[in-house]
Amino acid sequence: MRTGKDLILASKPFTRENKTKSWLYTLSTLFFLIISLVSTYTFEPIFVRLFFSVLSGLLLVRMFVIYHDHQHHAILNSSKTAEFIMYWFGIYILAPTSIWKRSHDFHHKHNSKLHVSDVGSFPTITKEEFEALSKSDRFKYLAARHPINILVGYITIFMFSFCVNSIVKSPKKHWDCGYALIIHFAFGAFLVVNGGVVALLLTLVLPHLIACMLGCYLFYVQHNFPGASFKLRENWSYDFAATHSSSFFKMNPVMNWFTGNIGFHHVHHLNSRIPFYRLEEAMNAIPELQNVQVTTFSPRCVYSALRLKVWDPESDQLIPV
Prior knowledge:
The protein is mainly alpha-helical and 321 residues long. It has helices at residues 4-11, 19-42, 46-71, 80-92, 97-110, 127-132, 135-144, 147-151, 153-169, 175-221, 238-244, 253-258, 265-270, 279-285, 299-306; strands at 248-249, 294-295, 310-312, 317-319.
């Protein structure tokens, strides 16, 4: 079984991009998203608009994965047109490039590494560290990992953590975060004035709520699941973190399409330059990527993952508190 550099090198052939596919998937997803969002505003009756609102949320997830791949330089890396599209999509989804790329790159370099800043990920501390916290700090830690935080990630994570906190801490570095907030609320005001509260809810709020909730949950469960492994810096390795601290989220073909194959998350963490449409191909071709932890949308799996809170070094696993 290959490990370390040998395993990473085995994944390298799958980083080759098919630019025709990249453009086809990017432009078709963007087209469907725009049509769906317009439909939430123009169609009647209300249940038709509601259908397109939910569809828009799912399409936002797919477009976000494409945006995420572009930020990793996996697709359309040299295209100014793609850069323009992705920049403005980042603004629209409240994950501007200045904060998203920095925090997400950090996550990839430190995934499942104990005693490292939780930038770009949900915080994880040891049982002993948790017991040493004050009551207020325990509350803050548990709140960050609470299902409600995932449920309303649109507000708590995307709006406040990504945008508000970033612009407050470093306005010169993250001015695009302030820009994103201004545009977001201006668009919301436009919808209220021209279409009322229903237009605001169906065209802006619900799609963002669905997309951010699903995105936050997938991000959480693919690194916080029974069997996930966390290591101290001196025992940590990039390939081990990919294969033992990132899950394979098994989905049906429809959800695989809407989530841009992000369920093959362990493959993505082994080599983030693999385009999303080649992740399954890479997994099928590399035996070392086939015997990994599996997560699903089953109620049992969701419950098992969400109840995990701290790392217990004695039992070598995540546990509830």
